[in-house]
Amino acid sequence: MTTYQRVLLKLSGEVFGGGRVGVDPDVVAGIAREIAAVARQGVGICIVVGGGNFFRGAEMQQRGMDRARADYMGMLGTVMNCLALQDFLEKEGIETRVQTAITMGQVAEPYIPRRAVRHLEKGRVVIFGAGAGMPYFSTDTVAAQRALETRCEVVLMAKQGVDGLYSADPKLDPTATKFDTISYQDVMMKGLKAADATAFALCMENKMPLIVFGAEEEGAIARIVAGEKIGTLVS
Ligand code: UDP
Fold it and tell me: Per-domain residue ranges for the chain?
């Protein structure tokens, strides 16, 4: 018996590119293998996919683009990641469905929450793309929202290059220390950044726990689902 029966995994775009722009098929194949192993245990898995490996609206705005248009580009970028992940999951023999918040019938289903739950009940992995379909939002916030709407027990937030939530950015501050557990209130008060504030607020308000962990850690998702305490638990 696993600790969790249904989880929402948030994969930031950085994870797909292995830290570079675009999609690295070897990296995605590795993530798919991990997710497939967990799915085979009968754990329901929803995935919200980021797009920072292609475009981030706020960065494009700083370089002269209209924010909303750049955000739509960002959302479209997430869909490319979704399709790559779907492909490698299916190569692992896992049934998947991609649902997008911007309708694009040729490549994915529209986001229909009840249908997503039905897919989960049938053992399919459901991948959510195109964020919320709205500019000025982030895929972190969408992860919290989708987790709530599809009744997941926890949000698993995979991070590239960091293995949990730290008192400061460990890449910039060598004295930064990692939290094993922390409350949402403390995250807010200390101004810690591992997900955006809206996502944290949504989780806090609705008592949805969140685990921040390192995407590079071997078998991390399976270990978390089995009850091992890795990364940082925010609750
Ligand atoms: N985005 C958006 N609305 C959403 C989700 C995403 O406008 O609901 C845009 C936004 O420009 C964002 C980009 O898509 O910068 C990529 O998403 P995000 O930055 O959340 O991806 P991640 O950091 O997880 O790779």
Answer: 6-228
Q: Encode pLDDT of 184-203 as tens digits.
A: 999 988 888 877 889 999 99
17 lines ligand 1 (CB under 6 A): no
C-alpha span between 100 and 108 (Å, rounded): 6
The string of pLDDT tens digits covering residues 62-87 is 999 999 999 999 999 999 999 999 99
ipTM entry = 0.97
Counting DSSP H helices and E strands in the chain, the numbers are: 9, 11
Is pTM, for the whole model, over 0.90?
yes
**Which letter, b or e, does each residue of 32-57 get, where b requires 16 or more Cβ atoms within 10 Å of its Cβ?**
bebbbbbbeeebbbbbbbbbbbbbbb
136 CA distance to ligand 1 middle (Å): 8
Among protein residues, the one with the nearest Cα to ligand 1's atom 16 is: 51
Between the CA of 117 and the centroid of ligand 1 the distance, in Å, is 24
For residue 13 and ligand 1, the question of a CB distance below 6 A is answered with yes
Does the Cβ of 96 fall within 6 Å of ligand 1?
A: no
Architecture, CATH, for domain 6-228: 3-Layer(aba) Sandwich (3.40)
